[in-house]
Amino acid sequence: MDYAGLAEAAAEKMGLYRRDPGGWRGCRRTSEVSVSWRPSAEFAGNVYRGEGILPASPQDVWECIKPVAGGPRTKWDQNVKDFEVVEAVSDTVSVCRTTTPSAFMRIISPREFVDVVLVKQYEDGTMLSAASNAEHPLCPPQPNFVRGFNYPCGCFCIPLPGEPDRTQLLSFFQTDLGGYLPQAVVDSFFPASIAGFYSNLTKAVKALKA
Asked: CB neighbours (10 Å) of residue 110?
């Protein structure tokens, strides 16, 4: 499997989504994030966009969200139970397995995702973590989890000129949760989950600074 090629393709998709403002429909707004969606071109579901300003430097935000084994993400992100690096393909590309706890009053049972993940830094200091589903011989489906699939998704940590202690976080989520879930459950889950992601991340970066 061409993991590096898959990872680069996911990063390119993130760039396209970032540059394409058309067709997004707002579905949830909190003090921390504005969430919108549009139909996915990748699968029979939606792609969700989250955008918010976090009260911390890009370095601190990145410290909380960077895709590394043993990182803080499992502590603050209620949708990540475990995160492991299955194979380091290069300095910037890895294959990772993520497991999630049950959610939505246990209507959604625990999931597992296997993704190729790319980390990239741009000239303006923006950091990107991009991912897309992959297969790996060390990650056969586990009996206690439903296998879900992330289509190209990721987070941009974007510096704000003249505001070193604030960061724009632009994120895109498009996930097939797998299993047999009513569409209404899926459509309710993601906006609430993304709002929770930004709220918990805001608390995490504040704790990091404290």
From this structure: 16
Q: How far is it, in rounded angstroms, from Cα 137 to Cα 134?
A: 10
Closest CA to 186 of 108, 79, 81, 77: 108
Closest CA to 168 of 58, 84, 79, 28: 58
Residues 6+ apart with CB under 8 A from 12: none
CA distance 38 to 170: 15
**pLDDT tens per residue, range 39-58:** 999 999 999 999 999 999 99
In angstroms, the CA 188 to CA 134 distance is 26
Q: Please, which pLDDT band fits residue 118 given cuts at 50, 70 and 90?
A: very high
Average pLDDT, the chain: 96
Rounded CA gap, 155 and 146, in Å? Answer: 24
Q: Enter the tokens of residue 62.
A: 């990145």
